[in-house]
Amino acid sequence: MSEPLLSIRGVETYYGNIIALRGVDLDVHRGEIVTMIGANGAGKSTLMMTVCGDPRARNGQIVYDGRDITQMPTHEIMRLGIAQSPEGRRIFPRMTVMENLQMGAGLLDGDGFDDDLARVFELFPRLKERIGQRGGTLSGGEQQMLAIARALMSRPKLLLLDEPSLGLAPLIVKQIFEAIRELNENEGLTVFLVEQNAFHALKLAHRGYVMVNGSITMSGTGAELLKREEVRAAYLEGGRH
Hints:
The chain is an alpha/beta fold. The protein has 2 domains: about 1-80 and about 160-240, P-loop containing nucleotide triphosphate hydrolases (Rossmann fold); about 90-155, no CATH class. The protein contains 10 helices and 10 strands.
């Protein structure tokens, strides 16, 4: 297999003296959807934020597209073609949908903005209907669509999605996962997804990892992990939406 787009080796991250990530190894290859599942507080979001340089890995190495980004400042990392849709959405609530999308495209020159806009509106038609509405007045599902659309406006090579289904109705969750699948199948977009909704995430993913207390305890294809008894017992019982 070719060199991974994202390679994480031996990464340890701390909050003060408390260790949050314990020697994490993980690869995301080009064109893959890779998911990481785990209970709340397992360290999944910390790993995603560590890739973006905040907090910084104390030990280990993170290589993206052949470059060591372990000690790089966050704004430089994001310029390399990584975009994040963070946990809790974090859209700009006072800005309109259009202004939020313009912020997403901020690092690019103006060429192709209209095409990018058309692409995200095709993916999320609801946003087109809400184009002049303030982000803070959108429903939770619409805000999540906006957070993903804003990330896509920067034309990333790697899309990081942190808990995209959190707190959303099952129908909206289905729409959002369908949009992620379309982006991957139609455009070859590489996606690293952190998600508590293990059933949906593993059905969508080519490969998955399980994180427990800051360590990777299992890995395999999405289909393999869905069949594992330990995964079913810990993450899937009663969790199908």
